[in-house]
Amino acid sequence: MKIRARLLIFFIQLLILIGATYLATQKLVSGDNWFVAGLFAVIINPQLLEPFYPRPADVLGNSLFSLFLCIVAQKGIMKVGWTIFSIVLIIFIILSLITIVFGSRNNQTRLHSLAKATKTISKEATALRIYSIVFLLSLVDKYPSFTTPFWIICSAWLLIVFITVVDWERAWNSFNGFIGDGSVEGMIGPSTLLVSAPEIPSPGKTVVLESENVTTTGIITSRIRRSSDVWGQIRLSTQSDCEKLIISKHINIRDSKKEDLILGSVEENSSDNQILFYPTKPLEIGNVVSVIDGVHEIMYQINSVKISQIDIKGGAHYRTIAKATQIGVFNNVSYQVQSFRWVPNSGSTIVANNPAPNIDDKNIKPEWFKIGHILGTGVPIFMDTRISSEGHLLILGMTKMGKTTLADRLAKFFGALCSVTIFDQTSEYSKRRGYDLCTREHLFAKNGIAVLEPDNPVSLPTFARTQFEKFVNQARDEYQAGQIQQRVIIFDEAHQFIPEPSGLNYNTPARDNAIAIANQMMQIRKYGLSIIIISQRTAVVAKSAISQCENIIAFKYVDQTGLEYLESIIGSQSREIVPKLKQGEALVYGPAFSSENPVAIKVATT
Predict the structure, then answer these.
(1) Contacts of residue 72, Cβ cutoff 8 Å, sequence gap at least 6
(2) Which CATH architecture has domain 171-255?
(3) pLDDT tier at 436 (50, 70, 90 boundaries)?
(4) Domain 368-603, classified CATH 3.40.50.720, yes or no
């Protein structure tokens, strides 16, 4: 407690003692032992002089003075009690002397160990306990018949003891919403305060900090319980408030009773591409958080979490540290997610992302295909089919993750704009989805969807090359005539049609045909031909073919070869997040998408 509160309690106790003495004896003071003991117990108590536990010198002084009172006391019916108490006091005198003489030595001898033991025992001899016994022994001897003065003085003593043991300042602070009187231990620039206090709320809570110079609010970002107090970090709104509070040294922390969506703050080792933070509540891989940095709300997607240890003086504990990769800033006009080309300020607030931006369907361009929305938000991600048609698209993922459903939606969208041909050896698209088989007329069609199914599944690369070259030749003729017509060709289960040549025998037709298709993919963009490759594994598809795909959609995927390929194109975050995706979720990246950075999305189904 503060010294003013302690002085106030001291004067209240003194008034109670004097008042009870006057009611019992008609005098303000008394020369009896009970009054002297009561006076010393009021003065030498935790409120004023004695620390939270008595030092050996305190025990020695109080025991010697109490022994003196025992000797000079006029003994009556409590003579045996005085004798026993005198023996106890002598024991405490001896114990405190051993502690004083041998406890200061810096060694590990038996005497030093004995001193540590005697210190532990002697701590129990507080001034309140010692003088309470003297007070009661003297009071019983004075009023052996337990008359009214006895009960007046005894009741007053119980009240004094009650006032002594209760932390009134903490009780008052709790009543008014104050958490406690805290001490400022330092700061982490620009605006994180390191404090210690009797109690600090759990991380994520908003608190009010008050000092003589400033009153401001802050967010608890971490806390550690120590033996005598609680250590914590508080993120303030401005650097100037932090600097004013650190000058004050002592602050009062009060719960603001305000719910907040603060999830943490930007920590050290964050960069322009990713941030590290200690989440104030459990999150999930793929969750999107936002950093408020001035006028910008920068979105980040959590891609990994680990446990780390934080050490401080007097304590340590394990903390969850999350890593989130930048998605960017959503532009409400262009509906593009644009990269923020700088690192956010250290200590910037991290909050839950706004899940529902305002989207006007009138501003969505006809060539934009809504592929889905960023995980956990309402932020849409579009694929510009005009841009994707100028290149190639790779769709990867394990079975049952949503590849075919997405391919079906893409086929329907493209089919309304141009000619779409699907290479399929499972009859999925013709029998289950109802698309017509390809005819010669489809080769010249301006739009529509048709399916090419091989008659002989033994030589699929040969079939693929034969049919593929028909479209290439037709597109080349139109290009030379200056009449480019857009076409999209989808290879479902692409490893069947364009297998990796290194897995085939030399001088075999399948190997030569796979190489030929891959080589042609390098040249056909200018003819208006766009390829969509769908596969479960990159290892079994021609590398020279998938390397031509500028746009990538990766569903859940655990094949190491494929993860290494994605990492080389997208970055390390792909290796971290792609294996953790759920059904219907995918990582998208490329110039055709409305996000400049890779982003995990919930793929739309309609």
Answers:
(1) 33
(2) Beta Barrel (2.40)
(3) very high
(4) no
